[in-house]
Amino acid sequence: MDEEKKNSKVVELAPASPAVAGGYEIDLTPREIVAELDKYVIGQKNAKKVVAIALRNRTRRGRVEEKLREEIIPKNILMIGPTGVGKTEIARRLSTLMGAPFIKVEATKYTEVGYVGRDVESMVRYLMEAGIRMVKGRRQEKLEPKATELVIDQIVDILQPPSKFAKRKPFTLQSTEDEPPVDKEKPQLERMRDRLREKVASGEMDDHTVEIEVSDANPKMVEIFSNTGIEEMGINIQDMMGNLMPKSSKKRKVTIGEAKKLLLNQEVEKLIDEDAVRAEAVKLVEQSGIIFIDEIDKIAIRKGRGSGPDVSREGVQRDILPIVEGCTVVTKYGPVKTNHILFMAAGAFSGSSPSDLIPELQGRFPLRVELDSLSTEDFRRILTEPRNALIKQYVALLGADGVELDFNEEAIGEIAATATRVNQQTENIGARRLHTLLEKLLEEISFEAPEGVQGEVKIDSGYVVGKLKDIAEDIDLSRYIL
């Protein structure tokens, strides 16, 4: 068992440790974290190195003595670079790697306090929702075996209801003192139910139809109007009214296979301790949560301006400041402290610079890393190397319709060169350009695939040039199409 834990890079800690949410931590070295990020993000070595150190510091903090642990705050990161170079992808993959609640927000969607719009504190509430879903998902996995047994018992009860003798003393035959009483009803019933249970559990009866009672899956939700605008708190009326409003349910005729899935969700919900989920989720969010603030450059104020919309931009910065500094935000799951949430901000800063942010906010993002623009070689690698590479995705998609795409190296190089050229001639949108190019390149094949095109289709450089040359060379047209 110890060897398995070592190999899986998961180290179990004492449950009492408040620094590690859920009683475990991801034990990866910075070099191993970078290696994991390399599987999905091409290039950007400096950015990967910075975030790897930030993640490792969380593990280190969990092993520090408790008195000093609370004093160690995360070093927030500001990523500077054009769109489409991997800023968001690095943050998202980092959160997946460490099993942490993660949300991405856009700074431009917030307004300062007193104006109608989204309240900056809502980012913490959204993060809390992500934490609740994550904790519930983990608990559901653990409770699923037990819930499955309960579901099978329910289905067996529907197919073969328990005997009427189950509610009273079973009928027994008279016997002598040397012979124990014999229950003639129970053995036969139990044997029948056991055989039925085996068939239901094995899936042998999945096509049979049964009538089950399921709860309403769409509880009524309400919106709360706060003094800072509309907050979609998602409050369940059932939770507010308690037992005054009984849960609605309805009967449905479904196959046993479908009944297993429907009833399984209900049984898992019954087994989950909601109070424990909330407590664990709050701890997980406070100690491991990641908030990615994109487009932070859009609320920066260029020097020499101090009126008009710039006043509002500075107001948003000042409202974000206490969240990043560390405060307590009230959510429907309880108060959440933001002191140890990791904040990652990003922006192109093409018309401004990080120094245009208010000094207090600048100081809360001590780690800054500039991401490089993508080269033709980077585009070529993005098309083929990552686990979710675009070429692999299109090969799999069209393979579902019986088309076998075969891209040679020259074709891939031509696509990468075209992406670079179009980015230089129009707006530089980074790797997102590849999505548009591939869609245009394979448009005809994708349209004809279900009925016309079948079998192997070779994509060479001539095919790429023929499909993309006219549009790529027409700068005015490519501004709208590409």
Describe the fold and architecture.
The protein has 482 residues and is an alpha/beta fold. The chain has three domains: 2-133 and 281-370, P-loop containing nucleotide triphosphate hydrolases (Rossmann fold, 3-Layer(aba) Sandwich), CATH 3.40.50.300; 138-276, no CATH class; 376-481, Orthogonal Bundle (Helicase, Ruva Protein, domain 3). Helices cover 49% and strands 16% of the residues. It contains 19 helices and 15 strands. It has helices at residues 2-8, 30-38, 45-61, 66-69, 87-98, 122-159, 185-202, 237-241, 256-271, 274-288, 309-325, 359-363, 376-384, 390-399, 409-425, 432-441, 443-448, 461-473, 475-481; strands at 10-12, 24-26, 77-80, 102-106, 209-215, 221-226, 229-236, 249-255, 290-294, 328-331, 334-337, 342-347, 367-370, 403-407, 455-459. The strands form six sheets. Strands 4-9-12-3-13 form a five-stranded parallel sheet, with helices on both faces. The two termini are 54 Å apart.
- Measured by DSSP, the beta-strand proportion falls in 15-25%
Low-pLDDT runs of 5+ residues are 1-24, 165-176, 221-238
Shape summary: flat
The level of helicity is: 40-55%
**How many structural units, i.e. domains?**
3
Largest sheet: 5 strands, parallel
CATH topology of the largest domain: Rossmann fold
Instruction: Quickly give the structural class.
Output: alpha/beta
Overall radius of gyration: 29 Å
What is the CATH top level name of the largest domain? Alpha Beta
Name the CATH superfamily assignment of the largest domain.
P-loop containing nucleotide triphosphate hydrolases
**CATH architecture grouping of the largest domain:** 3-Layer(aba) Sandwich
Strand order of the largest sheet: 4-9-12-3-13
What number is the mean pLDDT? Answer: 78
Number of strands: 15
Distance between the termini: 54 Å
Provide a count of the helices: 19
